[in-house]
Amino acid sequence: MAFNDSEKMKSKKDPDLHNVWNQSTTDQGEDEVDDEELNSINNQLDQLDSALDQLEQKNDDIHAQLVQLLESNRQARKQFQLMQNQNNSNENKEAQE
Asked: Which domain of life is it from (predicted)?
């Protein structure tokens, strides 16, 4: 059996002319299928790329909205702290009088 296996491996490494001819005609059919498959894969990749671009744009929009919200909250917090400080200061003045 080992001899048969080595013969099979030898024929794969050194095919004769008949095998080369059969392989080349088979490869032509596979090339057509491969071209169709490649076109299909390219179309799918284009669709995925487009979907990823849309997701990236939505992500950028959400990020911009979050930055605006954070800035708005910072300003509101500062105003609230100023109002509290003013109220505390007014209460202290009234208590001193």
From this structure: Eukaryota
